[in-house]
Each structure stands twice: as C-alpha cells, then as structure tokens.
Amino acid sequence: MFMNFRRIHKCQCVQLLTTGLALCMLMVCWEEVDHHVVSHVRSYTYRYLINSYDFLNSSFAINSKHHPGSAGDSVTYPYLINHPGKCSVGVGGGSNALEQGDIFLLLFVKSSPENWERRQAIRDTWGNETYTRSHLQVNVRVVFVLGVHPDVKQRPKVQSALLQEDKDYGDLIQQDFLDTFHNLTAKLILQFHWAHQYCSQAHFVMSADDDVFVHISNLVKYLQQLQSSQKGVKDLWVGHVHRGAPPVRRKDSKYHVPYQLYPWPSYPDYTAGAGYVVSGDVAAKIYHATLAFNSSMYIDDVFMGICAKAMGVSPQENVYFSGEAKAPYHPCIYKHMITSHGHATDVRSLWLAATDPSVQEQSSGFMGNVYCTAVRVMLLCLPHYQSTYSCMAAFT
Fold first, then answer.
1. Alpha carbon distance 60, 37 (integer Å)
2. Which InterPro entries match (predicted)?
3. In contact, 144 and 210? CB cutoff 8 Å
4. 282, 95, 93, 76: which is closest to 194 by C-alpha?
5. Which comes out higher in pLDDT, residue 361 or 61?
6. Helical axes 216-229 vs 129-136, angle rounded to 10°
7. Which CATH number is associated with domain 79-317?
8. How far is residue 66 from each of residues 4, 220, 296, measured CA to CA in Å?
9. In the predicted model, what is the mean pLDDT of residues 139-168?
10. Phi and psi of 225, rounded to 5°?
C-alpha cells in the first residue's frame, strides 16, 4: 500500500520532482495560460467553424432603457476647440484638384491633452501638411483629437496650454469629455462625426495613435495604387486585422469586458486601433452606425468592428500596418513600412532614417531585392510575443 522510497532510483526522483513542479507552475499560471491559449482557440473555433451567432443584438441598439446622455448612449459632446473650415480652405485658388483643396486623406491623430511633445514631433515629420503637398502632390489634413484632462487640479493649466497650442497651429479638435481609456469610444465617435460634418469630401480617412509612426510616403503611394487599379475605392477598411479575438474576462486587466456587456466568446473581426484607413464611403457608414448603437463598448477598436459588421464592411489585412509593437529598424523594412507602433520619443530620428534616399537605393535591383528578402525573413519570421509585421511581409 505504501511506496518504498528506497526502491525509487535517482532518475525517478528527478522525474517526480519535475512533474510536481510543472503541475504547480500550471496551477499558478493557469489563468494566464487559459487567457492566451484556451480562450483564443475556443474563440477562433466559434468564430470560423461554428459561427452560430451574429455578435449583435438589441443590447447595442439605442433604446428607451438608456437615459439621454448616459454612458451607454452614443452621445456627442460639445466642442471646446474646433476648426470647421479645416478641409474647405483652398491652397492656391487654381483650377486643379490640389490647388482647390481636394482632400486626399483626412488623418486623425488620437492624442492626450498633456502629450504636447508627441504632437510637435508629428507636426515636424510625417504629419507635416506642407511636406505632403510639396513632395507627394496630395492634400492631407492632419488634426489631433482629444478630450479634457481628467485631473481637475491640472485641467485649467493644461487647457490654457492647449488653447495657446491651437492658436499657434490650428490643428486641435477637442470635445468636453474626460480623456481616459474608457472614453476612447467617445474619441472614435468624435472622429467620424467630425469627418461627416466638416470633411465628407475626403477620399480616405485614417485614425492613428500619437505614438504611431506613419510612413506617409508609402501610405499615399499605396492608396494611390488602389485608386488607379479601381474606379473609385469602395468598402475599404485596411489595417492590422484581429480575427476571432476573445474578450478579456480577467478583472485585473484594463481590457476587461464583462459578460453582461458582451456575452459572446469572440469579437467581430477588427483592425488594431493604433492605425487604420477607411475609404470615404466607409467613413460615412460608420458615422451612421454610431447613431444606431450605444457606446457602452469602451474598447474603441472593438466598437469599430461592431459598427462595421452592422454596415456590412469587413476589414482587410495589409502586412505593413503594425499591431501592438514597433517594426524592426532596418532600411529593408522602411521601404514598405506604413505604420509602426510605440514611438513616443524617436519619431524624428525614425523619420530621417525611413525617408533617407539611400533606402530605395539599397533595396533596388535583383540583388537588392534578394538581400532585403533575406533580411526581412530574419527580422520578421521569428516568434514574437507582441504583434508587429507578420512573416508574410518578408515576401512582399
């Protein structure tokens, strides 16, 4: 009945100890393992194999159960800073589209009130409207969208600085809501409502975080290629796509979504909120969807996915839109880069490196393409915890 430990060999002792240690570690880390493995497998299976639910029901529709102005309603807040004529001002008064102010791209940068240095770095680099007009021959309008500082004590000082900043640059759009994580959906609604009301003629609309680097030359080239290959770009929603992603049920996570808010095991497909582009017709569809759905889903990119699914719009993957991580620093990456996430302090240096003429020279020709393909394979085809470019990007 009892185990005779004298008969157990040393190797068996090691095996028993190892197994016990592994079981202990599994018990301690089970919640994390379940979140990262089991939940994703279950979610993906439901989304693409069973697909027995449509992600939407009356819980997301605005109805009489919500009081006007409550957190669940898709409310619009009053503007504190606005520039209604941002897209209507012609540049040269000439006859061609560029001089008449034809807007190729309306680019929203989601910023926090205190992030002045990030906004200034963007103005000096990829968000410089003069650069895009003179070097790329297109009109791009860049505006920074934000709420009010959440700290009541700091708010007057920060607001005064914002008013002076806007007086100097004229590119801030601010509404009267607290600029917090749980109000990101309010910021998304602000973007599409502003685009509909003041810049509906824009061919494309982009949303990006203020720590995202946008290779504006590559982005414009990519969108122009789409235009030239199609008679008017329609139903475009492109970025880094999350497919079959499960809601986070852990209460200690800032991404926690309770069952009462979202009962399904999978989100609709959506693009990473760090940076994505939609065509003008999709921007209009999302605007109308925000009028029909309440904004109780505080994760903005998921709310975008809910609105898009309701309007029959599906996200499209572009391998050079980044997810949650920085793209590798290398000229062979810069040649195709569109967005890269996590650049709070190095935007200026990356801009100089990515736009250096030697980037194109190094990767040109047969040998240059072979060399860059090999480099991208080494940089992108290794497993990473965070999401940047996929291995498929190495072969484009």
1. 28
2. Glyco_trans_31 (IPR002659)
3. yes
4. 76
5. 361
6. 50
7. 3.90.550
8. 69, 42, 11
9. 98
10. -65, -40
CA nearest neighbour of 273 among 110, 75, 101, 48 = 110
Strands (E), the chain: 79-81, 103-110, 139-148, 172-178, 204-209, 212-214, 237-242, 270-279, 316-317, 339-341
Whole-number Å distance between alpha carbons of 337 and 217 = 10
Tokens of 258: 């309770």
Quote the Cα angle for 149-155-156, to 5°.
145
- Between the alpha carbon of residue 367 and those of residues 330, 371, 377, the distances in Å are 17, 6, 15
Structure tokens at 386: 């965070």
Round to whole Å and give the CA distance between 321 and 275. Answer: 7
| Closest to 201 in 3D by CA, of 84, 308, 87 | 87
What lies within 8 Å, CB to CB, of 283 at 6+ separation is 192, 195, 196, 200, 202, 205
Maximum CA extent, the chain: 98
46 confidence band (pLDDT: 50, 70, 90) = low
CA 241 to chain centre: 10
**101, 140, 158, 191, 205 from 199: Cα distances, Å:** 11, 11, 28, 10, 9
- Phi first, then psi: give them for residue 174, nearest 5 degrees: -130, 135
- Encode pLDDT of 308-354 as tens digits: 999 999 999 999 999 888 999 999 999 999 999 999 999 999 999 99
Reduced to 3 states (helix: H, G, I; strand: E, B; else coil), residue 352 is helix
**Integer angstrom CA distances of residue 96 from 101, 142, 192, 280:** 9, 21, 27, 21
- SS3 category, 312: coil
Distance CA 197, CA 86 (A): 11
The answer to whether residue 288 scores a pLDDT higher than 50 is: yes
